[in-house]
Amino acid sequence: MSGFLFKNFQMLEPGIGELRGGHELLVEGETIREVSDKPIKSASATVIDCGGKTLMPGLIDSHVHVYLSEVSIRSLENMPLTLMTARAVGLLSGMINRGFTTVRDTGGADWGIKEAIDKGNIAGPRLFIAGQAIGPTGGHSDSRRRTDVGLRCHCCNGMSFTMCVADGVTEVRRAAREQMRQGADHIKIMMSGGVASPYDPLMSLQFSMDEAKAAVEEAEAFGRYTCAHAYSPEAITRAAHAGIRTVEHGNLIDEPAAKLMKDKGMFLVANLVAYYAMKERASEYGMDADMLQKNDMVIEGALRSLEICKRAGVPVAYGSDLLGQLQVDQSREFLLRAEVLSPIEIIRQATTVGAQVVQMEGKLGTLAAGAYADILVVNGNPLKDLGVLQNQGRDLHAIMKNGKFHKQQLAA
């Protein structure tokens, strides 16, 4: 079987945490066939000389929105799905160009865009989807204006395509089942207010315990899991007792809530860069003052949430959660986390922990034999300079996903 034999590199295996030279790596088909500190023999593989650069696993962003192509999501109200999809193509291309070979969409992306990537119709990262994010009337998933009666045409209102409203246990069960019928990898529910939603207070508690448990039960019955949008300790605590697996955001978490998450075996998917980028530039793109005021409430706790979870032993995944024109800042998350974490800790969050979140441990986020061949060749050492992961992938001289090169600037 033909493939690719990588030589002359410094290997960054996240589980080891230091660069190691003298290794070779063989890719056959979609997977890594062999990694060895001795020469690997292959009669048919194309030899790739990495020129002494760093070879590492592809990155995982555990919280994106590939269909939210506007910072002011109200702009999506009159946007047809055809235009949303066309814009998503550009956003997905940018993500893989930055080295993110896997992303987890937490509201909006459907099986169609996932299938288009899998079939090679468009370029983009491997995609795990939630379908529509589910929330209660008046909550973070309720896209209606105060003057709206009912919902607008589904195919002409991008906002209604990315989220849905369900009230009571029966409606939540039906909504969760519908997302799984349409190919969802996980179910997203709303447990607290949000920044980008205009009418719900940030500290509001949204789905009740029974509603959240219904979503969890349905997801688990289908072999899936549930993630929860939650900022406050109260919302996080309710999510934990309901059986939620991952908390998204969690900026206002406190020590007791973090301990509970640890005891329950939960993950936090943090996303600092979204708040910093919104504070700096969101008003340019139409985000209103009320939303920006809520953003100010959560930005203060962003770095503190990482420190609290580190002390409690809660695994934290890398997430960006950027909207529209701000998505170019995706890799800046590395630099913000570096205020309180070491480079290897952050890289593990974007590889090892991300793989655990999407339930692909040992298959993603690693250079181990048998893993998918998602590989980056970086001009520089990310353990000493996270700047080499910036600049829209400029220092990534090779990007491979599933054993196929998306980008190749190395000698062969």
Q: What's the gist of this structure?
A:
With 412 residues, the chain is of the alpha/beta class.
Write up this protein.
By secondary structure, the protein is α/β, with parallel strands linked by helices. The chain has two domains: 3-57 and 366-408, Urease, subunit C, domain 1 (Roll), CATH 2.30.40.10; 59-357, Metal-dependent hydrolases (TIM Barrel, Alpha-Beta Barrel). Helices cover 31% and strands 21% of the residues. It is built from 13 helices and 20 strands. It has helices at 81-97, 111-118, 158-162, 168-181, 209-221, 233-242, 255-264, 273-281, 289-299, 302-312, 332-337, 343-349, 352-357; strands at 3-7, 10-12, 19-20, 24-28, 31-36, 46-49, 54-57, 59-64, 100-105, 126-128, 133-135, 163-165, 187-190, 226-230, 246-249, 267-270, 316-318, 375-378, 396-401, 404-408. Strands 3-2-7-18-19-20 form a six-stranded mixed sheet, with no helix packed on it. A hairpin with a 6-residue loop joins strand 2 and strand 3 (19-20).
What tags apply to this protein structure?
6-stranded mixed beta sheet; 5-stranded parallel beta sheet; 13 helices; about 400 residues; Urease, subunit C, domain 1; alpha/beta; TIM Barrel; globular
Q: How are the secondary structure elements laid out?
A:
Blueprint: E1 3-7, E2 10-12, E3 19-20, E4 24-28, E5 31-36, E6 46-49, E7 54-57, E8 59-64, H1 81-97, E9 100-105, H2 111-118, E10 126-128, E11 133-135, H3 158-162, E12 163-165, H4 168-181, E13 187-190, H5 209-221, E14 226-230, H6 233-242, E15 246-249, H7 255-264, E16 267-270, H8 273-281, H9 289-299, H10 302-312, E17 316-318, H11 332-337, H12 343-349, H13 352-357, E18 375-378, E19 396-401, E20 404-408
Parallel strand pairs: 1-6, 2-7, 8-9, 9-10, 11-12, 13-14, 14-15, 15-16, 16-17
Antiparallel strand pairs: 1-4, 2-3, 4-5, 7-18, 18-19, 19-20
